[in-house]
Design goal:
The chain is of the alpha/beta class and 355 residues long. The protein is 35% helix and 16% strand. α4 links the parallel β3 and β4. α2 packs across α4 and α7 crosses α10.
Protein backbone atom coordinates (compact mmCIF):
# COMPACT_ATOMS: atom_id res chain seq x y z
CA UNK A 1 0.00 0.00 0.00
CA UNK A 2 1.53 3.37 -0.97
CA UNK A 3 1.91 5.99 1.76
CA UNK A 4 -0.99 8.42 2.11
CA UNK A 5 -0.80 11.87 0.62
CA UNK A 6 0.14 14.57 3.14
CA UNK A 7 -2.78 16.09 5.02
CA UNK A 8 -3.11 19.76 4.15
CA UNK A 9 -2.19 22.50 6.58
CA UNK A 10 -4.72 24.21 8.82
CA UNK A 11 -4.63 27.23 6.51
CA UNK A 12 -5.61 25.01 3.61
CA UNK A 13 -8.39 23.53 5.72
CA UNK A 14 -10.10 26.89 5.85
CA UNK A 15 -9.65 27.35 2.11
CA UNK A 16 -11.73 24.26 1.43
CA UNK A 17 -14.12 24.15 4.39
CA UNK A 18 -17.79 24.80 3.64
CA UNK A 19 -18.64 24.63 7.36
CA UNK A 20 -22.33 25.31 6.75
CA UNK A 21 -23.86 22.71 9.05
CA UNK A 22 -27.37 23.23 10.41
CA UNK A 23 -27.65 22.71 14.20
CA UNK A 24 -31.45 22.84 14.15
CA UNK A 25 -31.59 20.14 11.49
CA UNK A 26 -29.21 18.06 13.59
CA UNK A 27 -31.37 18.45 16.69
CA UNK A 28 -34.53 17.56 14.78
CA UNK A 29 -32.88 14.46 13.32
CA UNK A 30 -31.66 13.34 16.73
CA UNK A 31 -35.09 13.80 18.29
CA UNK A 32 -37.04 12.16 15.49
CA UNK A 33 -34.81 9.27 14.46
CA UNK A 34 -32.19 8.46 17.10
CA UNK A 35 -33.83 8.96 20.50
CA UNK A 36 -35.17 5.44 21.13
CA UNK A 37 -33.52 2.08 21.70
CA UNK A 38 -32.04 0.56 18.53
CA UNK A 39 -31.31 -3.01 19.53
CA UNK A 40 -32.03 -6.28 17.72
CA UNK A 41 -33.63 -7.88 20.77
CA UNK A 42 -35.42 -5.11 22.67
CA UNK A 43 -36.43 -2.84 19.77
CA UNK A 44 -35.66 -4.45 16.40
CA UNK A 45 -38.23 -2.32 14.55
CA UNK A 46 -36.55 0.90 15.60
CA UNK A 47 -33.12 -0.48 14.73
CA UNK A 48 -34.39 -1.32 11.24
CA UNK A 49 -36.00 2.13 10.96
CA UNK A 50 -32.71 3.81 11.89
CA UNK A 51 -30.85 1.75 9.31
CA UNK A 52 -33.43 2.62 6.65
CA UNK A 53 -33.26 6.31 7.52
CA UNK A 54 -29.48 6.31 7.11
CA UNK A 55 -29.78 4.52 3.77
CA UNK A 56 -32.41 6.98 2.57
CA UNK A 57 -30.33 9.98 3.60
CA UNK A 58 -27.21 8.65 1.91
CA UNK A 59 -29.20 8.08 -1.29
CA UNK A 60 -30.80 11.52 -1.08
CA UNK A 61 -27.33 13.05 -0.78
CA UNK A 62 -26.24 11.25 -3.95
CA UNK A 63 -23.87 8.76 -2.34
CA UNK A 64 -23.47 5.23 -3.62
CA UNK A 65 -25.08 3.09 -0.93
CA UNK A 66 -24.03 -0.47 -0.09
CA UNK A 67 -25.20 -2.75 2.70
CA UNK A 68 -22.68 -5.07 4.27
CA UNK A 69 -24.69 -7.91 5.81
CA UNK A 70 -23.01 -10.46 8.02
CA UNK A 71 -23.98 -13.26 10.42
CA UNK A 72 -23.34 -12.01 13.93
CA UNK A 73 -22.14 -14.25 16.71
CA UNK A 74 -24.43 -12.29 19.04
CA UNK A 75 -27.91 -13.87 19.31
CA UNK A 76 -27.52 -15.42 15.83
CA UNK A 77 -28.89 -12.37 14.04
CA UNK A 78 -27.88 -10.86 10.71
CA UNK A 79 -26.20 -7.50 11.10
CA UNK A 80 -25.99 -4.71 8.55
CA UNK A 81 -23.39 -1.99 8.16
CA UNK A 82 -24.51 0.84 5.86
CA UNK A 83 -21.80 2.28 3.63
CA UNK A 84 -22.08 5.53 1.71
CA UNK A 85 -19.38 6.19 -0.89
CA UNK A 86 -18.47 9.37 -2.77
CA UNK A 87 -16.09 8.36 -5.54
CA UNK A 88 -13.09 10.57 -6.01
CA UNK A 89 -11.51 11.68 -9.26
CA UNK A 90 -8.65 9.28 -8.47
CA UNK A 91 -10.95 6.33 -7.75
CA UNK A 92 -9.49 3.01 -8.91
CA UNK A 93 -6.01 4.48 -9.32
CA UNK A 94 -2.89 4.47 -7.19
CA UNK A 95 -3.40 8.21 -6.64
CA UNK A 96 -6.55 7.74 -4.57
CA UNK A 97 -6.16 8.21 -0.81
CA UNK A 98 -9.33 7.11 0.91
CA UNK A 99 -10.79 8.97 3.90
CA UNK A 100 -13.67 7.68 6.02
CA UNK A 101 -16.01 8.98 8.73
CA UNK A 102 -17.82 6.48 10.96
CA UNK A 103 -20.27 6.03 13.83
CA UNK A 104 -22.22 3.04 15.13
CA UNK A 105 -26.00 3.38 14.92
CA UNK A 106 -27.20 0.63 17.26
CA UNK A 107 -27.58 0.78 21.05
CA UNK A 108 -27.32 -1.44 24.07
CA UNK A 109 -30.56 -3.25 25.02
CA UNK A 110 -32.00 -0.85 27.60
CA UNK A 111 -30.90 2.62 26.51
CA UNK A 112 -32.42 5.16 24.10
CA UNK A 113 -28.84 5.93 23.05
CA UNK A 114 -29.22 9.66 22.43
CA UNK A 115 -25.55 10.20 23.26
CA UNK A 116 -24.45 6.61 22.67
CA UNK A 117 -24.49 6.88 19.75
CA UNK A 118 -27.30 8.85 18.14
CA UNK A 119 -25.50 12.19 18.32
CA UNK A 120 -22.48 10.82 16.44
CA UNK A 121 -24.66 9.37 13.68
CA UNK A 122 -26.33 12.76 13.30
CA UNK A 123 -22.92 14.48 13.13
CA UNK A 124 -21.82 12.02 10.44
CA UNK A 125 -25.01 12.50 8.41
CA UNK A 126 -24.72 16.27 8.55
CA UNK A 127 -21.06 16.09 7.52
CA UNK A 128 -22.04 13.87 4.58
CA UNK A 129 -24.75 16.34 3.55
CA UNK A 130 -22.17 19.11 3.45
CA UNK A 131 -19.42 17.10 1.75
CA UNK A 132 -21.64 16.12 -1.20
CA UNK A 133 -22.28 19.78 -1.97
CA UNK A 134 -18.92 19.48 -3.75
CA UNK A 135 -19.21 15.99 -5.27
CA UNK A 136 -16.16 16.23 -7.53
CA UNK A 137 -13.18 15.42 -5.32
CA UNK A 138 -9.69 14.08 -5.80
CA UNK A 139 -9.99 11.26 -3.27
CA UNK A 140 -12.78 8.87 -2.34
CA UNK A 141 -14.78 9.54 0.83
CA UNK A 142 -16.62 6.83 2.76
CA UNK A 143 -19.29 7.20 5.43
CA UNK A 144 -19.67 4.10 7.60
CA UNK A 145 -22.79 3.60 9.74
CA UNK A 146 -21.87 0.43 11.55
CA UNK A 147 -22.90 -1.95 14.28
CA UNK A 148 -20.71 -1.48 17.32
CA UNK A 149 -17.46 -3.51 17.26
CA UNK A 150 -18.67 -5.40 14.18
CA UNK A 151 -16.58 -3.71 11.52
CA UNK A 152 -13.30 -5.14 10.30
CA UNK A 153 -11.46 -3.13 7.63
CA UNK A 154 -9.74 -6.02 5.83
CA UNK A 155 -11.28 -4.80 2.58
CA UNK A 156 -8.84 -1.88 2.62
CA UNK A 157 -5.71 -3.98 2.29
CA UNK A 158 -3.88 -4.37 0.05
CA UNK A 159 -5.91 -2.74 -2.71
CA UNK A 160 -6.94 0.63 -1.32
CA UNK A 161 -4.50 3.44 -0.44
CA UNK A 162 -5.69 4.54 2.98
CA UNK A 163 -5.47 8.05 4.41
CA UNK A 164 -7.46 7.76 7.62
CA UNK A 165 -10.65 7.06 9.57
CA UNK A 166 -12.38 9.57 11.84
CA UNK A 167 -14.53 7.50 14.19
CA UNK A 168 -17.06 9.00 16.62
CA UNK A 169 -18.54 7.33 19.67
CA UNK A 170 -20.40 9.26 22.42
CA UNK A 171 -19.78 12.92 21.53
CA UNK A 172 -22.77 14.92 22.88
CA UNK A 173 -21.97 15.58 26.54
CA UNK A 174 -20.49 19.04 26.85
CA UNK A 175 -20.42 19.83 30.59
CA UNK A 176 -18.91 23.14 31.75
CA UNK A 177 -19.56 22.54 35.45
CA UNK A 178 -16.57 22.29 37.75
CA UNK A 179 -15.57 18.73 38.68
CA UNK A 180 -17.69 17.17 35.94
CA UNK A 181 -14.75 15.34 34.32
CA UNK A 182 -13.01 12.19 35.56
CA UNK A 183 -10.07 10.38 33.99
CA UNK A 184 -10.07 6.79 32.75
CA UNK A 185 -7.64 4.59 34.68
CA UNK A 186 -4.02 5.36 33.90
CA UNK A 187 -4.66 8.50 31.86
CA UNK A 188 -3.44 10.99 34.45
CA UNK A 189 -0.12 9.14 34.69
CA UNK A 190 0.30 8.47 30.96
CA UNK A 191 -0.68 12.01 29.94
CA UNK A 192 0.32 14.37 32.77
CA UNK A 193 0.15 17.49 30.58
CA UNK A 194 -3.43 16.83 29.49
CA UNK A 195 -4.44 15.92 33.04
CA UNK A 196 -2.89 19.14 34.34
CA UNK A 197 -4.70 21.13 31.65
CA UNK A 198 -8.07 19.70 32.66
CA UNK A 199 -7.40 20.21 36.38
CA UNK A 200 -6.30 23.80 35.84
CA UNK A 201 -9.63 24.44 34.12
CA UNK A 202 -11.68 23.26 37.10
CA UNK A 203 -11.90 19.60 36.02
CA UNK A 204 -14.65 20.59 33.59
CA UNK A 205 -15.90 18.36 30.80
CA UNK A 206 -15.92 21.20 28.28
CA UNK A 207 -13.79 19.56 25.60
CA UNK A 208 -13.81 16.95 22.86
CA UNK A 209 -11.37 14.11 23.45
CA UNK A 210 -9.43 13.07 20.37
CA UNK A 211 -7.23 9.98 20.59
CA UNK A 212 -4.92 8.10 18.29
CA UNK A 213 -1.71 6.15 18.29
CA UNK A 214 1.58 7.97 17.98
CA UNK A 215 1.51 6.72 14.37
CA UNK A 216 -1.68 8.76 13.85
CA UNK A 217 -0.20 12.07 15.01
CA UNK A 218 -0.45 13.74 11.60
CA UNK A 219 -4.20 13.16 11.51
CA UNK A 220 -4.57 14.12 15.18
CA UNK A 221 -2.76 17.41 14.68
CA UNK A 222 -4.72 18.27 11.55
CA UNK A 223 -8.01 17.70 13.37
CA UNK A 224 -6.95 19.77 16.39
CA UNK A 225 -5.78 22.60 14.13
CA UNK A 226 -9.06 22.56 12.21
CA UNK A 227 -11.10 22.49 15.43
CA UNK A 228 -9.26 25.50 16.84
CA UNK A 229 -9.39 27.45 13.57
CA UNK A 230 -13.18 27.08 13.40
CA UNK A 231 -13.75 29.23 16.48
CA UNK A 232 -16.23 28.76 19.36
CA UNK A 233 -13.36 28.59 21.89
CA UNK A 234 -15.62 27.54 24.76
CA UNK A 235 -15.70 24.14 23.04
CA UNK A 236 -12.17 22.98 23.79
CA UNK A 237 -10.23 19.92 22.64
CA UNK A 238 -7.71 17.60 24.30
CA UNK A 239 -5.39 15.43 22.22
CA UNK A 240 -4.07 12.03 23.31
CA UNK A 241 -1.39 10.30 21.21
CA UNK A 242 -1.00 6.83 22.71
CA UNK A 243 2.46 5.21 22.64
CA UNK A 244 2.54 1.63 21.40
CA UNK A 245 3.75 0.30 24.75
CA UNK A 246 0.67 1.73 26.50
CA UNK A 247 -2.08 0.39 24.21
CA UNK A 248 -2.88 -2.53 26.50
CA UNK A 249 -2.92 -0.29 29.59
CA UNK A 250 -5.29 2.35 28.21
CA UNK A 251 -8.14 0.18 26.99
CA UNK A 252 -10.72 2.94 27.41
CA UNK A 253 -9.26 4.54 24.28
CA UNK A 254 -10.02 1.40 22.26
CA UNK A 255 -13.73 1.05 23.08
CA UNK A 256 -15.03 1.59 19.56
CA UNK A 257 -14.67 0.60 15.93
CA UNK A 258 -11.44 2.49 15.28
CA UNK A 259 -9.61 -0.13 17.37
CA UNK A 260 -10.11 -2.67 14.57
CA UNK A 261 -8.28 -0.31 12.22
CA UNK A 262 -5.46 0.11 14.72
CA UNK A 263 -5.09 -3.66 14.94
CA UNK A 264 -4.53 -3.69 11.18
CA UNK A 265 -2.10 -0.77 11.37
CA UNK A 266 -4.43 1.58 9.50
CA UNK A 267 -4.54 5.27 10.37
CA UNK A 268 -7.57 6.10 12.53
CA UNK A 269 -8.54 8.55 15.26
CA UNK A 270 -11.22 8.41 17.95
CA UNK A 271 -13.55 11.31 18.82
CA UNK A 272 -15.45 11.11 22.11
CA UNK A 273 -16.70 13.11 25.08
CA UNK A 274 -15.18 10.35 27.30
CA UNK A 275 -18.53 8.57 27.84
CA UNK A 276 -18.96 7.32 31.42
CA UNK A 277 -16.17 9.55 32.73
CA UNK A 278 -18.12 12.78 32.39
CA UNK A 279 -21.17 14.31 34.05
CA UNK A 280 -24.55 12.63 33.65
CA UNK A 281 -23.08 9.77 31.61
CA UNK A 282 -21.37 8.45 34.74
CA UNK A 283 -24.85 7.25 35.72
CA UNK A 284 -26.49 7.00 32.28
CA UNK A 285 -23.93 5.15 30.15
CA UNK A 286 -25.83 2.20 28.60
CA UNK A 287 -28.82 3.10 30.79
CA UNK A 288 -32.36 4.36 30.24
CA UNK A 289 -31.43 7.92 31.21
CA UNK A 290 -29.21 8.40 28.13
CA UNK A 291 -32.19 10.20 26.69
CA UNK A 292 -33.51 13.50 25.39
CA UNK A 293 -33.76 14.88 28.93
CA UNK A 294 -30.10 15.94 28.65
CA UNK A 295 -30.31 17.42 25.16
CA UNK A 296 -29.64 21.17 25.20
CA UNK A 297 -28.91 23.80 22.56
CA UNK A 298 -25.38 24.07 23.90
CA UNK A 299 -24.79 20.36 23.41
CA UNK A 300 -26.28 20.49 19.92
CA UNK A 301 -23.85 23.29 19.09
CA UNK A 302 -21.03 21.13 20.49
CA UNK A 303 -21.76 18.29 18.06
CA UNK A 304 -22.33 20.84 15.29
CA UNK A 305 -18.75 22.02 15.77
CA UNK A 306 -17.61 18.41 15.53
CA UNK A 307 -19.51 18.07 12.27
CA UNK A 308 -17.98 21.28 10.91
CA UNK A 309 -14.53 19.96 11.71
CA UNK A 310 -15.30 16.69 9.94
CA UNK A 311 -16.27 18.68 6.85
CA UNK A 312 -13.03 20.66 7.09
CA UNK A 313 -11.07 17.42 7.31
CA UNK A 314 -12.88 15.89 4.34
CA UNK A 315 -12.31 19.06 2.33
CA UNK A 316 -8.58 18.90 3.05
CA UNK A 317 -8.05 15.16 2.72
CA UNK A 318 -10.30 14.83 -0.35
CA UNK A 319 -10.07 18.28 -1.98
CA UNK A 320 -12.87 19.17 -4.33
CA UNK A 321 -11.98 19.98 -7.91
CA UNK A 322 -13.35 21.92 -10.87
CA UNK A 323 -16.28 19.95 -12.30
CA UNK A 324 -14.95 20.50 -15.82
CA UNK A 325 -12.11 18.09 -15.07
CA UNK A 326 -14.33 15.32 -13.73
CA UNK A 327 -15.61 13.73 -16.92
CA UNK A 328 -12.41 11.83 -17.63
CA UNK A 329 -11.77 10.80 -14.05
CA UNK A 330 -13.93 7.68 -14.13
CA UNK A 331 -12.17 6.49 -17.28
CA UNK A 332 -8.75 6.20 -15.68
CA UNK A 333 -7.26 3.09 -14.14
CA UNK A 334 -9.36 0.56 -16.05
CA UNK A 335 -12.38 2.61 -17.09
CA UNK A 336 -15.91 2.63 -15.75
CA UNK A 337 -16.22 -1.16 -15.85
CA UNK A 338 -12.95 -1.54 -14.00
CA UNK A 339 -14.13 0.95 -11.39
CA UNK A 340 -17.37 -0.96 -10.89
CA UNK A 341 -15.55 -4.27 -10.55
CA UNK A 342 -13.16 -2.65 -8.10
CA UNK A 343 -16.09 -1.29 -6.10
CA UNK A 344 -17.81 -4.66 -5.90
CA UNK A 345 -14.58 -6.42 -4.93
CA UNK A 346 -13.92 -3.81 -2.27
CA UNK A 347 -17.36 -4.03 -0.74
CA UNK A 348 -17.85 -7.78 -0.91
CA UNK A 349 -14.55 -8.53 0.81
CA UNK A 350 -15.66 -7.06 4.15
CA UNK A 351 -15.25 -9.49 7.02
CA UNK A 352 -16.85 -9.92 10.42
CA UNK A 353 -14.68 -9.28 13.44
CA UNK A 354 -14.18 -12.63 15.13
CA UNK A 355 -11.91 -11.91 18.08
Amino acid sequence: MPPPAPILSAAALLTYCTCDVDPQRMEDTLRQHFSETRHHRTNPDNKRAAKQYIQDQFKQYGLEVHNHEFPSAIDNVTGTNVIGMLRGKNFNTSLDNVVAISAHYDTMPETPGVNDNGAAVVAMLEAARQVVRHPQRNNTVFFFAVLVTEFLPTFLAPNVPWQGLLNMDVILNFDSRNDSQDFPPGVDMAFPDQAASVRSDGQRGDFLTIAGRTADQGLLKAFVDAWNKLGQPKFEIEEFAIPVNLHDHLRDFTRSDHSNFWEHNLTAIFLTDSANFRGYMEQCYHKQCDSLQYLTKERVNFIAKTSRTLVAMADSMAPYVDSSSSSASMLTGGGVLGALIFSMALLTSLRLLTN
